[in-house]
């Protein structure tokens, strides 16, 4: 039960928080942070961007007031975090991912969606690709994967494979394939497969080529629910995909089981939903828009775990990464 005390100020603060978010998203769309890697004046920014100097100054002062940037006399500059995450000069720039997620998860027009119900076509088909642009998602989320997903994966697999190496790795529904790519780099004798739908696979093909791994990693195209995913794998990475097998869960998990070698590992990342779908709140809100549109995909963690154990897997290790649940199962 939620024991958080609410006051009148709690509700008014939501108004301020919303304005701060609007300001932040507008600054990202205007690419303001990329102009502020070094101290710079209003006149210089206006000359570079061709934005209106008066209103540009109002915007920048507002960003200073909420501590997203700094002001030193008459010059503006990024915070260290802003330069690292929000400037396009940084390899860890996440601005496009933030904007995409904000659009993807938008609750605009929520009133009409509640009044009139979901989109019948989306509800009838219940397919994520009808709602989400997975190709764009794969592109913009590459920095996020390197920030939060790669290190826990590599560290754990190094512990599991202290005395040997996996010979074959599958990144299933891997989007950009970054996790599979980095795992293959960590184990230089391993071969890899990235399995993705055709439209998204071009992102993985680009990243494999960029890393000069075409001789070791194959990009396989298809529908991982219906199609053969191959076999002989020592590790299968299944990050955020098992919900899409909701209507075929037991058959899908059997497919995973059969695809693994004896003692093979599944590295499973789920959304960590409670059985009553009340936690975690950030994930509930993140998926609310698509659910209002008509999707019904998400599985509670307990349902997934019970199905994995019933199929013969044993739980090897579990952890948390933000709002996501990481579970490692062994055949």
Describe this structure in words.
There is one protein chain. The chain is built from 15 helices and ten strands. With 331 residues, it is of the alpha/beta class. It has two domains: 8-88, Arc Repressor Mutant, subunit A (Orthogonal Bundle); 125-330, Rossmann fold. The strands form two sheets. The chain has a seven-stranded mixed beta sheet, with helices on both faces. It has a three-stranded antiparallel beta sheet with strand order 1-3-2. Strand 9 and strand 10 (324-330) form a beta hairpin. The longest helix is centred in the first third of the chain and has 22 residues, at 8-29. The model has no long low-confidence stretch (mean pLDDT 94). This is Methyltransferase. Keywords: Methyltransferase, Transferase. It comes from Vallitalea maricola.
* Low-confidence runs: none
Average of pLDDT: 94
Ends distance: 37 Å
Rg from C-alpha positions?
A: 22 Å
> Main sheet: which strands, in order across?
6-5-4-7-8-10-9
The number of helical segments is: 15
Domain tally:
2
User: What is the CATH topology descriptor of the largest domain?
Assistant: Rossmann fold
Helix percentage: 40-55%
| Structure classification | alpha/beta
Query: Judging from the principal axes of the Cα atoms, what is the shape?
Result: globular
CATH 2nd-level architecture of the largest domain? 3-Layer(aba) Sandwich
Elements, N to C (H/E): HEHHEEHHHHHHHEHEHEEHEHHEE
Q: How much of the residues is beta strand, in percent?
A: 15-25%
Please give the CATH class of the largest domain. Alpha Beta
Number of strands: 10
Q: Can you say what the CATH homologous superfamily of the largest domain is?
A: Vaccinia Virus protein VP39
């Amino acid at each position: 039960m939620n024991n958080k005390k609410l006051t009148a100020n709690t509700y008014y603060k939501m108004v301020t928080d919303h304005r701060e978010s609007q300001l932040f998203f507008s600054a990202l769309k205007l690419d303001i942070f990329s102009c502020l890697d070094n101290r710079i004046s209003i006149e210089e920014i206006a000359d570079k961007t061709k934005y209106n100097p008066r209103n540009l100054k109002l915007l920048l002062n507002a960003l200073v007031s909420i501590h997203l940037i700094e002001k030193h006399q008459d010059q503006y500059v990024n915070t260290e975090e802003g330069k690292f995450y929000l400037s396009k000069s940084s390899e860890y720039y996440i601005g496009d991912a933030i904007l995409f997620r904000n659009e993807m998860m938008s609750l605009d027009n929520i009133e009409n969606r509640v009044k009139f119900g979901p989109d019948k076509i989306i509800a009838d088909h219940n397919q994520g690709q009808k709602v989400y642009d997975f190709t764009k998602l794969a592109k913009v989320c590459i920095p996020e994967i390197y920030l939060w997903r790669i290190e826990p994966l590599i560290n754990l697999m190094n512990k599991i494979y202290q005395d040997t190496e996996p010979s074959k790795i599958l990144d299933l529904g891997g989007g950009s394939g970054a996790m599979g790519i980095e795992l293959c780099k960590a184990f230089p004798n391993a071969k890899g497969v990235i399995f993705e739908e055709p439209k998204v696979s071009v992102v993985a093909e680009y990243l494999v080529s960029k890393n000069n791994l075409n001789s070791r990693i194959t990009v396989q195209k298809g529908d991982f629910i219906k199609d053969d995913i191959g076999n002989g794998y020592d590790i299968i990475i299944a990050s955020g995909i098992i919900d899409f097998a909701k209507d075929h869960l037991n058959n899908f998990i059997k497919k995973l089981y059969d695809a693994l070698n004896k003692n093979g590992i599944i590295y499973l990342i789920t959304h960590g939903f409670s059985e009553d779908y009340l936690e975690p709140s950030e994930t509930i809100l993140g998926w609310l828009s698509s659910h209002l549109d008509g999707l019904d995909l998400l599985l509670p963690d307990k349902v997934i775990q019970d199905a994995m154990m019933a199929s013969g897997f044993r739980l090897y290790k579990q952890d948390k990464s933000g709002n996501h649940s990481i579970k490692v199962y062994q055949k």
